[in-house]
């Protein structure tokens, strides 16, 4: 191949890639396989492109997922249980056309994520900064007194709710900073 032919091949590949990306965004395909849901999530919706004359048979397996609404339609609502982990082929749909001929199954893996945070405290206002640990690692902590995933008791006396977040899931812990005693002045008898 000469330079001109190479240039044409590269241009064709580039245009093809742009068309593929445009197609993905045009049809709104945003679910990444596996889909990550929070443990005990309620009302999670899944759908495929609707064909007016088709019916859809949905199956939910693993993770304690229960199909709540939508059987027979192109859109379902699922309540996920508290059983965590990766569930291959957890959501399956088979479309049947007007002649009652089934298509190929479409499958989606689901990762059910349960977050937890370390219990800390109670604290006094002068206590040192304490690292916050979330499980699984990799999330972020937020709330009053949180700086760089650590709690600073110097924020002051009070009850604080700290939130650990990851992949759209959240969990909270309560942290207390107690007031120290107020000692009167030293007196002489």
Quick summary:
The protein is mainly β.
Characterize the structure shown.
The chain is mainly β and 189 residues long. It has two domains: 84 residues, Immunoglobulins (Immunoglobulin-like), CATH 2.60.40; 62 residues. The protein contains one helix and 15 strands; from the N terminus they run αβββββββββββββββ. A four-stranded mixed beta sheet has the order 1-7-6-3, with no helix packed on it. It has a three-stranded antiparallel beta sheet with strand order 2-5-4, with no helix packed on it. Strand 12 and strand 13 form a beta hairpin.
Order of helices and strands: HEEEEEEEEEEEEEEE
What is the CATH superfamily label of the largest domain? Answer: Immunoglobulins
The number of E-state strands comes to 15
Low-confidence stretches: 6-29
Sequence of strands across the biggest β-sheet: 1-7-6-3
Fraction in beta strands:
35-45%
The largest sheet is: 4 strands, mixed
Oligomer: single chain
Mean pLDDT: 86
| CATH domain class of the largest domain | Mainly Beta
Topology, pairings included?
Blueprint: H1 3-26, E1 35-38, E2 44-47, E3 55-60, E4 66-69, E5 75-79, E6 85-96, E7 106-113, E8 116-117, E9 130-131, E10 134-135, E11 140-142, E12 146-147, E13 150-151, E14 158-166, E15 169-177
Parallel strand pairs: 1-7
Antiparallel strand pairs: 2-5, 3-6, 4-5, 6-7, 8-10, 9-13, 11-14, 12-13, 14-15
């Amino acid at each position: 191949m000469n330079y001109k032919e190479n240039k044409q091949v590269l241009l064709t590949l580039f245009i093809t890639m742009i068309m593929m990306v445009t197609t993905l965004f045009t049809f709104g395909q945003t679910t990444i396989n596996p889909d990550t849901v929070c443990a005990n999530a309620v009302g999670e919706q899944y759908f495929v492109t609707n064909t007016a004359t088709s019916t859809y048979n949905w199956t939910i397996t693993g993770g304690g997922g229960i199909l709540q609404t939508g059987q027979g339609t192109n859109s379902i609502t699922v309540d996920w249980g508290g059983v965590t982990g990766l569930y291959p082929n957890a959501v399956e749909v088979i479309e049947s056309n007007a002649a009652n001929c089934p298509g190929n199954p479409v499958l989606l893996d689901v990762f059910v994520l349960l977050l937890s945070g370390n219990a800390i405290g109670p604290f006094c206002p002068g206590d040192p900064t304490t690292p916050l640990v979330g499980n699984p690692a990799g999330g972020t902590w937020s709330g009053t007194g949180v700086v760089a995933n650590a709690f600073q008791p110097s924020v002051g006396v009070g009850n604080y709710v700290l939130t650990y977040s990851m992949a759209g899931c959240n969990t909270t812990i309560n942290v207390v900073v107690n007031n120290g005693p107020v000692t009167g002045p030293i007196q002489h008898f």
